[in-house]
């Protein structure tokens, strides 16, 4: 199976085990008590092995979505104007609701990280193949972006604490290492030129820089934040132009990965939020990036045929819808707080509601079909 297929969906297999009826005598079979559950152990081993084989970095789309939802609800909880409908709704919810959501996002990210770490230890060749893949390599940014979003939304760690600073270094260092490796390949390696490997998921490298920049800005490291923002936004311009040109060398995404096109919305939305945190106000630069996000959103939703085939059967690629919509909702909240107009407030209500509904639907589908996504059993 190609890595492209594994990034979106899996074939379904089944394990058929035939057990002979028990004999009336134990002669010749030894003491069965020495091997109480041989078939059960084999079955569990098969499940775990093939779960690790079929798991990939694309599953971190789930943690990206949940972490961004936690950040969204924290941002909504900090709204100053008590007249907002969403503000009144939040006040009506139990005080522990946000902590439960944040804890769910943390647990999900921890579980995915542990599984991927075990995969690295037992199937390093597959991880290496993922690193060399033009789509898979970009999702190696996803776990670190998720951690940075969780850090920004944490109800337990203040931005001025030493713990926040230490965790920022831990989560940002892999992003910078991947930056140096991947951006260097785009610049120097013939087969890895950006024009040959560019696809919508390439924007995750930009989002990684922006998430690190915003986390630095929140703890007052303005120069560091500007540095990371500069690297991210300049490469965003290069990626955006390359994707817009549709250079013949660019490899197209398989049908099942078409939802990844929604990352076009996520990058400018995150850039808008990040610049707001750096500058201290939702100024013209933040507004322009927000307007670009809205334009790209309208461009995508007006072309449903682009996503129709990928929606025929549920797979983990569907989670690519949630994070970009949540990033856009976050930007709309900051925009509404700055503009304080009826239209801006309506936009905020619309995007927040849309992101929450989409995320909830994806959680329900995933909970109902987990066995179809990871626990794939061979013949």
Automatic annotation (TrEMBL):
Q: What is the membrane topology here?
A: Multi-pass membrane protein
Q: Which family does it belong to?
A: Belongs to the SLAC1 S-type anion channel family.
- Record-linked Pfam families: SLAC1 (PF03595)
Compartments (UniProt record): Cell membrane
What parts of the sequence cross the membrane?
A: 100-119, 131-151, 223-244, 256-276, 288-306, 318-336, 348-368
Record text on subunit structure and interactions: Homotrimer.
**Keyword Cell membrane applies:** yes
Predominant location of this chain? membrane
**GO MF annotations, alphabetized:** voltage-gated monoatomic anion channel activity
User: What superkingdom heads the lineage?
Assistant: Eukaryota
Q: Could you say which residues form the signal peptide?
A: none
InterPro entries xrefs = SLAC/SLAH, SLAC1/Mae1/Ssu1/TehA, Voltage-dep_anion_channel_sf
Tell me the protein's name: Uncharacterized protein
Provide the Gene Ontology terms for cellular component: plasma membrane
| GO biological process: one example | intracellular monoatomic ion homeostasis
| CDD domains per UniProt | TDT_SLAC1_like (cd09323)
Described function: Slow, weak voltage-dependent S-type anion efflux channel involved in maintenance of anion homeostasis.
């Amino acid at each position: 199976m190609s890595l492209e297929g594994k990034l979106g969906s899996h074939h379904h297999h089944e394990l058929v085990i035939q057990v002979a009826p028990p004999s009336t005598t134990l002669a010749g079979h030894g003491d069965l008590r020495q091997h109480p559950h041989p078939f059960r152990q084999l079955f569990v081993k098969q499940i775990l092995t093939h779960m690790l084989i079929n798991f990939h970095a694309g599953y971190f789309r789930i943690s990206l979505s949940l972490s961004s939802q936690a950040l969204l609800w924290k941002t909504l909880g900090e709204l100053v104007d008590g007249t907002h409908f969403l503000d009144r709704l939040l006040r009506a919810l139990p005080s522990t609701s946000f902590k439960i959501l944040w804890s769910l996002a943390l647990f999900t990210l921890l579980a995915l990280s542990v599984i991927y770490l075990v995969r690295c230890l037992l199937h390093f060749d597959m991880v290496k193949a993922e690193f060399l893949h033009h789509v898979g390599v970009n999702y190696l940014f996803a776990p670190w972006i998720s951690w940075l979003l969780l850090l920004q939304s944490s109800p337990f760690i203040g931005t001025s604490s030493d713990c926040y600073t230490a965790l920022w270094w831990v989560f940002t260092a892999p992003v910078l290492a991947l930056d140096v490796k991947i951006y260097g390949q785009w610049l120097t390696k013939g087969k890895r030129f950006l024009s040959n490997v560019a696809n919508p998921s390439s924007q995750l490298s930009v989002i990684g820089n922006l998430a690190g920049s915003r986390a630095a800005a929140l703890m007052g490291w303005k120069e560091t934040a500007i540095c990371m923002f500069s690297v991210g936004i300049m490469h965003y311009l290069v990626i955006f132009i390359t994707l817009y040109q549709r250079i013949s060398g660019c490899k197209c995404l398989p049908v099942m990965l078409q939802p990844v096109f929604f990352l076009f919305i996520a990058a400018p939305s995150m850039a808008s939020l990040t610049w707001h945190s750096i500058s201290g106000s939702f100024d013209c630069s933040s507004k322009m990036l927000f307007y670009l996000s809205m334009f790209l959103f309208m461009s995508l939703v007006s072309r449903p045929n682009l996503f129709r085939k990928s929606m025929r059967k549920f797979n983990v690629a569907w989670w690519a819808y949630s994070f970009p919509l949540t990033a856009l909702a976050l930007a709309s909240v900051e925009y509404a707080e700055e503009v304080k107009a009826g239209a801006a407030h309506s936009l905020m209500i619309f995007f927040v509601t849309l992101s929450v509904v989409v995320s909830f639907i994806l959680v329900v589908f995933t909970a109902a079909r987990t066995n179809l996504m990871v626990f794939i059993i061979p013949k």
